């Protein structure tokens, strides 16, 4: 998942810091495998995307990645180009996480991270606003920095837990909103978009025409029944959401089919591997005789495979040797030091071994997979 979205972003105004971070991120531990030769990749399928965003010093890749997918869907379905507010999503997800944390007696996840379904739940429950209506940076900082927010929310909520509270009363909720207002700004009750007045809920319904039932999350684990839903036992799944379990072959076919149909895919997985190098623009593993099903499951259970970042799969292609690659949109900005201005290529081995969860619009499903899911 995504919990921490590990890389805290660079403040591009601080040139010395840029050089330092760049040196660290391109050090030996971050290099692609030995004897790596940059391939020439030709995209065979691609999806129109909005501009690359920067999550800055905030653990909100889950909001950026999911919003980016929704933005591409809006282009495909209606020809609408929107920039959706990630901080609106992060704000209300924090409130819901706090409520669940207290209800569980402090046993559920309470950090700034999240997953795809958290975005879907927020939009369904609270609505959504465009970025221009809610930037989430009331002090006009260059980029997002949630160090103060995350600390303040944890202190406040853990304080309520120590008081043995199992929910938020009106005064608790008011204080929590005061904290969120301080760090993210006040949420507009209504706003003007293209000369029309909307509330967050009416914007989601009338402009986005959002339907939470249009989307599904899928995983591939051999220890769970296939083509059925189950609740993933994962600390980041604090709301106990269900996931569809399919074979790895079907997962890759789904991604390939979706891209060919013009739908992008949400990707959640591990970016801590030495072969993941955002700055060079590649994520790859050495060619080997992988037992993908066995290794994926073992790596997930031992947390060798971490769930630390979300990306948007925006295209697919092949190199001159016939190897498959996926074109991924990131949320770490489009700085000069990023080889592909905020995008990267993920090689098939890496995708098959290090993907944990994918999110797709149901219209992207291949017919063969629809049949398997409908028969269960």
**How big is the Rg?**
20 Å
Number of H/I helices? 11
Characterize the biggest β-sheet: 11 strands, mixed
Text of the CATH class = Alpha Beta
**Low-confidence runs (pLDDT<50, min 5 residues)?**
6-35
Order of helices and strands: HEHHHHHEEHEEEHEEEHEEEHEH
Q: What is the percent of helical residues?
A: 25-40%
Which superfamily, in CATH terms, is the homologous superfamily? Cysteine proteinases
Structural class: alpha+beta
Question: Topology, please?
Answer:
Layout: H1 15-25, E1 41-46, H2 61-78, H3 86-103, H4 116-126, H5 147-162, H6 170-184, E2 191-193, E3 196-198, H7 200-207, E4 215-219, E5 228-231, E6 242-245, H8 248-261, E7 265-269, E8 276-277, E9 282-283, H9 292-301, E10 309-319, E11 324-329, E12 343-347, H10 348-354, E13 355-361, H11 367-374
Parallel strand pairs: 4-6, 9-12
Antiparallel strand pairs: 1-10, 2-3, 4-13, 5-6, 7-10, 7-13, 8-9, 10-11, 11-12
Keywords:
two-stranded antiparallel ribbon; eleven-stranded mixed sheet; Cathepsin B, Chain A; alpha+beta; 376 residues; 13 strands
Can you walk me through this structure?
The chain is globular, with a radius of gyration of 20 Å. It has a single domain (35-374), classed as Cathepsin B, Chain A. It starts with 14 loop residues before the first helix and ends with a helix. The protein has eleven helices and 13 strands. Strands 1, 4, 5, 6, 7, 8, 9, 10, 11, 12 and 13 form an eleven-stranded mixed sheet that branches. It has a two-stranded antiparallel ribbon with strand order 2-3. The longest helix is centred in the N-terminal third of the chain and has 18 residues, at 61-78. β8 (276-277) and β9 form a beta hairpin. It has helices at residues 15-25, 61-78, 86-103, 116-126, 147-162, 170-184, 200-207, 248-261, 292-301, 348-354, 367-374, and strands at 41-46, 191-193, 196-198, 215-219, 228-231, 242-245, 265-269, 276-277, 282-283, 309-319, 324-329, 343-347, 355-361. It has 376 residues and is an alpha+beta fold. α3 packs parallel to α5. Residues 6-35 have low confidence and may be disordered.
């Amino acid at each position: 998942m995504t919990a921490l979205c590990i890389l805290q972003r660079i403040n591009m105004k601080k040139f010395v810091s840029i050089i330092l971070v760049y040196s660290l991120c391109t050090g030996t531990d971050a290099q692609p495998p030995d004897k790596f030769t940059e391939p020439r990749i030709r995209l065979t399928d691609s999806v129109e995307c909005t501009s690359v965003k920067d999550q800055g010093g905030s653990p909100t890749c889950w909001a950026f990645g999911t919003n980016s997918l929704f933005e591409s869907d809006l282009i495909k379905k209606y020809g609408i180009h929107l920039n959706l507010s990630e901080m609106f999503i992060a704000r209300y997800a924090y409130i819901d996480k706090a409520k669940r944390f207290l209800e569980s007696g402090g046993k559920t996840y309470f950090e700034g991270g999240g997953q795809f379904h958290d975005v879907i739940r927020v939009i369904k429950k609270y609505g959504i606003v465009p970025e221009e209506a809610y930037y989430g940076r009331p002090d006009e900082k260059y980029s997002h920095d949630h160090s103060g927010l995350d600390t303040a929310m944890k202190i406040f909520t853990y304080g309520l837990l120590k008081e043995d509270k199992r929910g938020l009363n009106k005064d608790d909720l008011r204080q929590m909103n005061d904290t969120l207002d301080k760090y993210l700004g006040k949420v507009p009750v209504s706003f003007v978009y293209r000369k029309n007045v909307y509330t967050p809920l009416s914007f989601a319904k009338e402009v986005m025409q959002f339907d939470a039932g249009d989307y599904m999350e899928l995983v591939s684990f051999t220890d769970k029944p296939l083509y059925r839903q189950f609740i993933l036992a994962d600390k980041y799944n604090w709301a106990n959401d269900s996931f569809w379990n399919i074979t790895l072959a079907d997962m890759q076919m789904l991604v390939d089919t979706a891209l060919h149909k013009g739908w992008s895919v949400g990707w959640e997985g591990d970016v801590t591997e030495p072969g993941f190098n955002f700055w060079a623009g590649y994520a790859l593993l050495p060619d080997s005789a992988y037992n993908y099903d066995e290794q994926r499951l073992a790596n997930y259970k031992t947390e060798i495979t971490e769930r630390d970042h979300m990306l948007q799969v925006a295209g697919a292609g092949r190199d001159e040797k016939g190897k498959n690659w996926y074109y991924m949109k990131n949320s770490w900005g489009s700085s000069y030091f990023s080889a592909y201005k905020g995008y990267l290529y993920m090689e098939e081995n890496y995708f098959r071994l290090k993907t944990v969860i994918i999110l797709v619009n149901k219209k992207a499903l291949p017919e063969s997979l629809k049949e398997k899911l409908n028969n269960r």
